[in-house]
Design brief:
This protein has 431 residues and is an alpha+beta fold. It has 15 helices and 13 strands. The N terminus is likely disordered.
């Protein structure tokens, strides 16, 4: 950095009254130079107010002034680096995203928006300043998520192993009311007998799935020890039931049909007629399709928006279908070959900006163009459904636990790398 540019950055901002000889008044000053950005004294003062207020509310003692000053300055330097990274990635938080975030903040605190405004004002912060503070935090979060997510690798075996541990903990106190059908098949049975028994057991499963009564079918066909009781084994915990039954049960709920599965004596079918102590999970899955246009050196953000608006117009006129246009124009190769179809999934799998748009979009309506870290999109929700995801929920929980652990580790490593690779000059009061 040459002496002239350094003088410009470190110079004190002054307000001169043209018709008087009043002394210059300092408006703000630079505390630190961070690459091509700066941390201002006003930023430090704003953070000092926030930290002091939080300490008072939580009855905590602040560290010595010099320590506090260094901690605040370092935090602002790291935040500035993340904002610069967000700018490089083209991340922007629009007013609708900002308003949704503020609404969520109010809801989490059990406040109305008016009550939140009053609370912010009482803390000495204007509403405009508060909005920009939230926008800043959202921008930083998006940049961090975009960069750290790509560093994380989670193997399927890791998820399966942790999910198994969680299942075992959850199932310890669960009781199942089981019904059982057993078709006998000797090990030395000829091929024709084996095929006949196999065909019959699948026919019985089909009857159960289409409303057949397990008690009637057990009494008519089962060769198991509870056949005359309609196959009813009563209420059992996992440790109380035969191992061959326990090995087949994971997180299935009431009404689940398990099997057929083999043992040394033949084929078995289980039905869970009732369950106690099992937390079942029903979730909303969304079937969506999208078209992605990525800005480039030759295609600006405005150009990408215009291209997507032209595509929407073609769909509405009936010139071409959404699927055909996705195949032609979408920059997402994974979904483009399927007409933009993203398949069935919960919206948690999407990046925040895409998730927010899909969650709010009515079924059958094409969104306006919007931007995420991947580029510009239009999206349409083609269907929604409620599904029992008890077993999947445990795996999702295991995945989230692993992801959060690794995210925190990788986020810290990323921030350290960002800080180590930056040009930072801390300026004193005497400059």
């Amino acid at each position: 950095m040459n002496k002239w540019s350094h003088a410009l950055i470190t110079g004190v901002l002054v307000l001169l009254t043209p018709f008087s000889h009043a002394a210059p008044k300092e408006l703000d000053r630079v505390v630190a130079v961070v690459n091509d950005g700066v941390v201002l004294n006003s930023d430090m003062e704003a953070m000092r107010r926030t930290v002091t207020l939080n300490a008072q509310q939580n009855e905590r003692q602040l560290p010595p002034a010099s320590v506090l000053e260094e901690q605040m300055r370092e935090r602002l330097i790291v935040e500035e680096l993340q904002l610069q990274e967000a700018k490089r990635l083209g991340i922007q938080i629009d007013d609708s995203q900002l308003q949704q975030a503020i609404t969520n903040i109010a809801k989490e605190q059990s406040l109305s928006l008016d009550e939140l405004r009053k609370q912010v004002s009482a803390q000495g912060t204007s509403w405009a300043q508060y909005r920009e503070q939230v926008r800043r935090e959202l921008t930083i979060s998006e940049a961090r998520n975009a960069q750290v997510r790509r560093r994380i690798s989670i193997l399927p075996q890791e998820v399966e192993s942790l999910a198994k541990q969680l299942n075992e903990q959850q199932l310890q106190k669960v009781r199942y009311k089981l019904s059982h059908i057993q078709l006998k098949l000797d090990d030395d049975a000829d091929k024709a007998t084996r095929e006949a028994v196999k065909k019959q057991v699948f026919e019985l499963v089909d009857k159960l799935r289409h409303g057949g009564k397990v008690a009637d079918l057990a009494m008519a066909y089962s060769k198991g020890p509870k056949a005359l009781d309609g196959g009813d084994w009563g209420w059992l915990r996992l440790e109380e039931m035969p191992t061959i039954f326990a090995d087949q049960i994971s997180n299935q709920g009431k009404g689940a049909i398990i099997g057929p599965f083999r043992s040394g004596v033949g084929y078995h079918i289980l039905k869970i007629t009732d369950v106690e102590g099992l937390e079942t999970v029903a979730v909303t899955e969304v079937k969506a399709r999208h078209i992605l246009i990525k800005p480039s050196i030759v295609l600006s953000d405005k150009g990408a928006q215009k291209e997507l608006n032209d595509i929407i117009a073609q769909i509405k006129r009936g010139d071409q279908s959404f699927a055909d246009l996705a195949k032609q124009y979408s920059d997402d190769p994974g979904s483009a070959v399927n007409g933009g179809d993203l398949g069935w999934s919960t919206t948690d799998v999407y990046v925040p900006a895409f998730k927010a748009k899909v969650d709010a979009l009515p079924q059958g309506q094409i969104s306006e163009p919007f931007k995420t870290v991947h580029g510009w999109h239009i999206v349409e929700v083609t269907d929604r459904r409620e599904v029992d995801k008890t077993d999947a929920a445990v795996k999702n929980r295991a995945y989230r636990m692993l992801f959060n652990r690794k995210f925190n580790e990788e986020a810290q490593a990323w921030l350290q790398e960002l800080r180590a690779g930056a040009y930072v000059e801390v300026l004193g009061d005497d400059r």
